[in-house]
Amino acid sequence: MSPHDSIVTLLDDAARLARAVPQFDTDNCLSLPEAYTIQSASIARRVARGERRVGVKMGFTSRAKMAQMGLSDVIWGRLTDAMQIEEGASVQRSRFVHPRVEPELAFLLKKPLAGNVTTVEALAAVEAIAPALEIIDSRYQDFKFTLPEVIADNASSSGFVVGGWHDPRTDFRNLGLVMSIDGRPVQIGSTAALLGDPLRSLVAAARLSAAAGEPLQAGWTVLAGGATPAEWIHPGQHVAVEMQGLGGAAFHLS
Q: What are the Fumarylacetoacetase-like C-terminal domain coordinates in residue numbering (predicted)?
């Protein structure tokens, strides 16, 4: 029995039942490796219930955010098929505790990608790129957490929507984007916010997932990180992103 089993159960139940839970590491005693062990065990429970791994999401891909959090590296979380929302579909607010949304660039892989790869090698593994939206939803009460706590909670990843796929030979290093809620622009940004080049996020994903013994697989989706600050979302709202040259992605929160 793992010393972290009670925390794994706490966070797994919180995500499954959309129920806020208190912080468990307010003294910041949990190490980052321990936090990732908890995340992995929590996702393993979902897989045991029938969910399927479909990719990874990257977090803190803004240099400013990394510096603010005292980090020298990005963080990451796991994606399952139960988290994917069909583009344009309606998703129930009851699935979440206190959801927010952020615009992303998504990569679709055509072959495995693992270890310390170059940006050239990373691009060669990409089948397609697409605009995307990620729903982030910390399960902690009042949306308050330490860095290890957010990692343990699957880096707050709760849902994602991917738009139409496009040729990755498009130059996607600095694509303008607008995220709107009910037709009103709420965030304007660029894919350049993702470590200066979204491919660097994919390189980091390959390195970190391989180090965890879960290398990126063909057919997986990699969300490169939030290109703007996240926005709170509420029932009845329609959320959309439009990305220069790539079209858009949208969903409705009911």
A: 76-248
